[in-house]
Amino acid sequence: MAMFVHLTPRANISRIRRSGLGTAIGPGGLRGVFCFPVLPSYTVTHQWLRELTGHHGPRGLIAVYLTLADDEPVTVGHFDDSDGPQRVGAAEAVRVVAGLREPRGWEVFVPRRVDRHEVHRIREVRRLAETRPLPRSGPVPMELVADACDRADTVALREALSLLGRRRRGPIDRVASLCGHPEPLVRATLAESIVPWAVPGVDDLLTRLSGDPDHKVREAAVQALETRAAVPVPRPRGIRTASPSVPEGALPHPRGALFHPRTRH
């Protein structure tokens, strides 16, 4: 059996004990669970705590350890790898990550929900001593969003939104246009990405997405609203919670121009 760790808000403990780990949108639009192999180094094993703590606070996360059969199909790769993850068995994913000289930024994705009987234990997580951010290079995520919109590249757009979702704040007025994007997976990724943002207008945009025609988008938006309600996001000081003002039928493009929902970008 191969063991992995998944970090999640403390508010989810009861649900996990009752029905296991829920899913999020991952590589290729599949729904599943992100996790990381349990290695001898606590710091490496729980490396994603640095990124996620900014979303939920140092006391807002718990570690869920899960066991999978050695041949359980998973994907493994670096979050910023343009070639995408490898499809391997769970045991092979552990070997791949354990053999890396620099495993920071790597992740494993289980393309299904994790049943409660596969949850080995749930534990508190301690603050990591090392505080170096994950290595990044090239354009900032918002530039990647704008570029993907211009090229009509939905895969790149979803990856850029996922990078924005690692931040505590984001330009809600500049991504609001994606609420009318023709690809449902983009709209669902948008809902998941803005969950940690402590800026005005996030709940309004999620409420709008919760009425989306596509059931996957509605599901992602409702889950995002539930997470924000269970783990309140800090409100920025001196900023009123007014929703971004946009004209009816014409929303701001990520670079500042107008983006019409029915226009292919």
Characterize the structure shown:
There is one protein chain. The chain is an alpha+beta fold. The chain has two domains: 2-124, ADP-ribosylation fold (Alpha-Beta Barrel), CATH 3.20.170; 141-259, no CATH class. Helix content is 33%, strand content 19%. The strands form two sheets. Strands 1, 2, 3, 4, 5, 6, 7 and 8 form an eight-stranded antiparallel beta sheet that branches. It has a two-stranded antiparallel ribbon with strand order 9-10. Helix 6 (154-164) packs parallel to helix 8 and helix 8 runs parallel beside helix 10 (215-230). The longest helix has 16 residues, at 215-230. It is globular. The model is unreliable at 130-139 and 236-265 (pLDDT under 50).
Keywords:
single chain, 265 residues, alpha+beta, ADP-ribosylation fold, 8-stranded antiparallel sheet, two-stranded antiparallel sheet, 19% strand, globular, disordered C terminus
